[in-house]
Amino acid sequence: MASSSSSSSSSVRPNYQVFLSFRGEDTRQNFTSHLLKALKDRGISVYFDEEKLESGEELSQALLTAIAESQIAIVILSKDYGSSSWCLRELFEIMEWYKKGQLVVVPIFYHIPPSDVRNHGGNFRKSFYKHQRQKPAYEVQRWKDSFAEVGALKGWHIVGNSADRSDSEHIEKITEEVVNKLNSKSSSGSEESVGLDAQKKEILKFIHQNDTRVIGICGQGGIGKTTLAQAVYKKVSPQFVGNSFFLLNVREKIEKHGMESVVNDFLRRVLNQGTGIGIPLSSLDEDRLGNKRVFVVLDDVNHFHLIENLGVKYLGAGSKIIITSRDRQVLRNTDAKIHRATYLKPDDSLKLLSKFAFKQDNPSDEFWDLANEIANYARGLPLTLKVLGSALYKQSTEIWESLIDKLKECPEEEVFSQLKLSLDGLNRVEKNIFLDIACFFKGYSRKDATDVLDCCYNNGARSVITKLVDKCLLEISRDEFRYYDNLWMHDSLQEMGWEIIRLESEDPRKRSRLWRLEDIHLLEDDKIKQYTMYP
């Protein structure tokens, strides 16, 4: 029997990862309590009976809700489990959700043969005989059916004799299985995972290479580098029990607290040390790092010197470090195997938008055309799809149409702000050349654009364009017809550049750049000389 261990008075319904079903008198003080601790130590939220109450004929609404909301039910079948009508009602509910495909069930046959559960043998024969004399026949039959069903599932048989492994060894293996199942459900069902399978496989291929320590994920802001790293982390971290962690928003932490703070945080976690560690590392610290096999994700890194200060090169054999960055040059300097994050395909774009806007995989019929228009606007950028999808959740078609019209004039503020961070670290000339390309030279051959920009920036355009490519603000695409290397950037980055210019002044005539014909016509004819340039 189980009941909630939460004492929160919040009105928000609980959402548990694991529901523990067990007979308190059999296993509460030994196996079940140890399993509970092992699950909690791995950060898993568990619905568990704290008070051993079995009262009434009906299960509480809180318990029914917990079963419905859990992802996995662990059923610990012990010798007296079948004697409790409460446990049997609980098991019936669990198996109902299992048959609907909404719940994973992990049976543990604790000191009993699985065949006794399947066939109602052993102690269970007496228990069901007693229930048949005291309970309605239809209810007992439901319990017997559920008992046979759970007995037929693949689970863990803990014999309990000297030839069997210890309870602690079983618990370690069971916990590992639960973590893997939760990771699998999270990866397949989450809106965050849409379109990531192929990219995740490539990263995992790098992870499994013995000679690869550092893996870099690069790409423009909002393309899903962090999401991809999280998906890989969920998959790989169980292989590094107690020796893995994920450092989010490293760039932001350095800006707020300084690089030394981030370095100390990293080293404290790796070395399990409470006090700070000096920079540069001492020879003793380097030796200690060499004894550690860890898996770490460093998210949003924009300083190569950080990787040096962390002592990554001193980590023990088998260590793996994933670094996400908007700067390819930072990753090159770490000798990382680099994966370039890719945009979503059209079908995945629509699916991701639908996950946020409709909480399902596809738009409803009346929103189909509008959803496709939004998905096409995003051009495969997950950030845009998530932001717009969230903004449009439970909104009318009129609101959808209004937002689409607004996007023709300016980008969504949250998307604009996130993308604008990519310009941090660029100097004045580099920012100006980016804005020039966004306004005038997208689609032009690299040579033609460089020749024009060199005239404006004292022959500095070539190196700046290379830097913008490394910063994932610009790409070089080959024209398959004319065999030219052309300048290209994602529509979201171009719109970000346009918006920066528009914010200079409400009056187009006071802006630094004009690219729309209707704005150019505002100027007096004698103050502008028009050129026609062909890409």
Helix and strand topology:
Elements: E1 18-21, H1 24-41, E2 46-47, H2 61-69, E3 72-77, H3 85-99, E4 104-110, H4 114-119, H5 123-134, H6 137-151, E5 156-158, H7 167-189, H8 197-207, E6 214-218, H9 225-236, E7 244-247, H10 250-257, H11 259-271, H12 283-290, E8 295-298, H13 304-310, E9 320-325, H14 328-332, E10 337-340, H15 346-357, H16 368-378, H17 382-391, H18 397-407, H19 413-420, H20 428-441, H21 446-456, H22 461-470, E11 475-478, E12 485-488, H23 491-502, H24 517-520
Parallel strand pairs: 1-2, 1-3, 3-4, 4-5, 6-9, 6-10, 7-8, 8-9
Antiparallel strand pairs: 11-12
Helix pairs in contact: 1-7, 3-6, 8-9, 10-11, 15-16, 15-17, 16-18, 19-23, 20-22, 20-23
- Biggest sheet features: 5 strands, parallel
Choose one word for the global shape: globular
Which blocks of ≥5 consecutive residues have pLDDT under 50?
1-14, 51-56, 531-535
How many individual helices? 24
Oligomeric state as shown: single chain
Q: State the separation between the terminal residues, measured CA to CA.
A: 73 Å
Number of strands: 12
User: Which strands sit side by side, in order, in the main sheet?
Assistant: 2-1-3-4-5
Judged by helices, strands and strand pairing, the structural class is: alpha/beta
Strand composition percent: 5-15%
Overall pLDDT confidence: 86
Radius of gyration: 30 Å
How much helicity do the residues have? Answer: 40-55%
